[in-house]
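Thread: quick sanity check before group meeting

JM: Hey all, I'm pulling together slides for Thursday and realized we never actually wrote out the predicted structure for the chain we discussed last week. Dropping the sequence here so it's in one place. If anyone has concerns about the input, flag it before I start.
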Amino acid sequence: MKYFATLLLCLLSMLPSEAQDKYFTDVSLATDNRLYKLSENAVQYREKQALYFEYTRERAVCEIRFYVRPDAGVVGLSFAPSASYDVLDSLCWVDNCYRGRLRLLDLQSTQQLSLLVNAAVQADEWTRSLDTWELPLFPYVQTWVKLFQGSDDLYVGEEKVIELESNNASNVKTSAAWLGSNGVDYRVVQRDSRLFLHLMPKEAGTRSIVAEMEAAAPFLDTVAHRLGNRIALMIPNLVVRSNRIAFLNINRKEVTYDSESQSKGVVINIDNHRNLQINRTYRIEAQEKPGGTLVGELYTMESLANDKVLCKLTVFNLHRITDGYLYIKDRDRELPVFITNIDITPKMQITGVQVLREGDDWQRSATVHPGERIDVVVEGNSLHKSRFTWQDVYDLTVDTVNQTENRRYFKLRIPMNINKRNVDLLNNGQPTGTSLTVEEYRRPHPFDFITLNYGDFKSVKLNKANNVILARSVMNKFILSFNRSVIDSSRLVLYGKQYLDVELRVLGSKGEIIELQSLKNILVSPDETSPRGAFYTDRNSLKEDLNINNFLSNKTEALDRNFGKIQLTVKQSADKYTDPVFEKHIEVVYQPKVIFDIDLSFPGGMLIQNLGESQTERDAKSLYNEAKAEYDVNAKNYADALEQWKTNPGYDPANIPPEPTAPVAPKKAAFTDNLGGISIALIGQLRFTDDRRAGKLKPYRVGAGFLFINTLNFNDNARRDLAVVVLGSIYPLSSRRMWNVPIHVGFGYKVQDKIPFLMISPGISISF
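JM (edit): ok, ran it. Output follows.
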């Protein structure tokens, strides 16, 4: 304690006593974790007494307090401007002192740091002066150096490099010069802001050394309480062993084994060694014992200033560092004198390319499509030497963990508007001969881009069409039209060219095949609205609609009106696609609402009700009238004779005339009275087709024609006649049969009887 008190008095005696005695009793500086006072923490630096403090950050914020003497006459303090600090809080009077805050700038690089203060002094009632006071500051960082890790044994004549640990490596001075300590040469060098200790033992044994270094900026020796820049690193108990085979580093990690390296060799730099002779050829083998396979030859050309030797390396075999050391042997002794290691690998060569699409497996193919994201693997030898770039595509590769010498992985996105047919793989900007072939999409598109036009103003999209379509009018056209803008309408999914196969079958009303046609590989390309429209330029592409009648001998307008059919099959050409194709079967049936034909029927047992008197009835009535007139005369004569008999009893009764018979009046003919035999009816009929079912008729018909009454009735009293009739018929059986049993209901007019009538009758019908 006595020592520190004496030291403190000495330090106080060296303070700027005039300014301190005149204005301040003390000055303090507070950092994040400590408080420093000028009365306690001052050091002589560059012939000035400076307030020292330890900092941890280059831009430190601190609080300054000035304790003013009561009799100094100081009425105000302020910080003078400076490039070394920023004023955060101006000085103000608080708790019997002036207090303010500063941000000190670039403490690491600032060589001289001073705090300037303007003091306003009131000398008397009328006199005030402004005085500037300088407070030198000494910021420091306590710099230390330690061993980063334990060291292995050392060998005489073999250099050993050990990494050091330091809290402020940039403050440690390094030098390329070797220094000695207890039989071991050492030097400290700095690389990439890290410190490395190089050791070169000269004598065997267990040794302890002290590696001395200097700090660029001095720091406070807290023990001696003075500034210093010496850094001493104690390394105890180093075990130094006798010589062993020296390892010589080569400035290259890899050499390519090719014709040039075999014939002309490769120029390299190798570590210098006292036993390495210039202008001498050394043999390089992969084993320590004699008789090893020759891997290469090393010819030493000249020594370099950086303690390296310029050599020519000629290689004759492949080698991997992982296979073990390479032994440098003197040709005269066949014994290894040095060891080294280097990769001798074959020339970079690409042997294949594989492509992976989402949801698919790896494919040994180099075909890609516009707009797609793919994974690509390039296979070959020594691919780690390459600097691959893909031309005109987006390389999205992020993960490089799986990259090997034989496989390089890429994640690529092919631009939608790419204008090349090939994407070249470049190595260092030069073509490798490997490329990806850009091929337009060839996907089967749903049939919403195809429309079938099968009649006047009749059309349907193929994907929404029913399997059976009823055509009510004559199909004077039968056309497949293509909306090419639909194929690549989405910029996210492209389909490309569409190859279609069309099969046609023309059938008659009975299902018989009339004609067959097959159209193969009809090409329909997307139009110019497609993002790839400029690449769909194929001369064979269909530019217009496909008129089916151009390929048929039996035109659709001549199709059998009685349920003639066209069977249409449209599908993508299976040999053009790898995905499953679409296929659509449509049967178009020509089925008008009304069909006219001639029907020959044989009505039998017709029930006929005349609407008036027939000729037979009129003849019967005339005969009745004549018989009635004669009866009336005979009845009167008989009445007179009977009266005379009653009044003349003597009158002979035998002479009384017989009583006449009254004639029977003819009655009106009924349905059952005219039940005739088999007749013949020749009727022109209108048949009505079903609205929903193809080839089906409704069970009723309407027609008009001629009825030959009792034509096939061969009785002598049969009365034949010709009638004009209008009939409604019901056909309960299938309309596709030639023979049928209809029921006829209608009315007509008998030509001979000249009378209209109603009729109902079954019949046997034959259709033509």
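AS: nice. The chain is about 5% helix and 50% strand. Residues 1-20 have pLDDT under 50 and may be disordered.
JM: adding both to the slides.
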